[in-house]
Amino acid sequence: MHALEIKDLSKFYGDSCAVDNLNLTIENGEIFGLLGPNGAGKSTTINAICGINNFQEGDILVYGKSIKKEPVEAKKLIGISPQDYNVDLFLPIKKILMYCGGYYGIPKKERKKRIREILNLLNLSEHANKKFQQLSGGMKRRAMLARALICKPKLLILDEPTAALDVELRYELWEHIKNLNAQGMTIILTSHYIEEIERLCSRVAIINHGKLLFIGHKNTLLEKHKTLEEAFIHYLKKDEH
Ligand code: ADP
Ligand code: MG
Q1: Are 105 and 158 within 8 A, CB to CB?
Q2: What mean pLDDT comes out for the span 132-152?
Q3: 36 lines ligand 1 (CB under 6 A)
Q4: Ligand 1 atom at minimal distance to the Cα of residue 40
Q5: Average of pLDDT values for 126-144?
Q6: Three-state SS for 11?
């Protein structure tokens, strides 16, 4: 079974089309990269997968569960770290995780255990009682990842997970992402950083103006182009004509 199937997805904001008849399939166990310039429709697609956005056409299946017909079952399988921090800035990380686990109906004792494990995994244990607002940029991103992990997702979705992080912090987060994947988690990553996609992902999709321009293994792109960046620019230029 596919980890994710996006079928004929279209999303409009008023008259403006943000996702235009998108089709893509993601396999269990891969780190899949969704690459596109600002405004390409990456976050709109991600938010549709997570049920944060509605959409007008098509359907999305998460491990065979339709986000339209079986939203509760589908959402239970997904952990999301959104592009923007959508948390109460005045709450300590531990509380944020407790509340989020509560939404998933995880019993209190189990929640506490998971939170201890996740904070430990992401080197956040000593900051557990700090308010989100007090954390550094790298810690904030790790806290968002921690929250995404509370439901033990089969599919982890990271929307621009290293936005505004310096090189060292980016590398640190990449290591966490690789480790989670090595443990069997399927991961979708959106980024406009080509290097990030190149280092982490095997298969990639390039989108622009809500349309799929390429989907396949990054090596397919590298057979025709010197770098992934060159391939990316090639597809964007072709799209403008
Ligand atoms: P990306 O994540 O690739 O940068 P987005 O999905 O955020 O792109 O945006 C895709 C398009 O949809 C852009 O043209 C953007 O301006 C528009 N858009 C995004 N969110 C909204 C919204 N809430 N209302 C209206 N237009 C939106
Ligand atoms: Mg975005």
Answers
A1: no
A2: 94
A3: yes
A4: 3
A5: 95
A6: strand
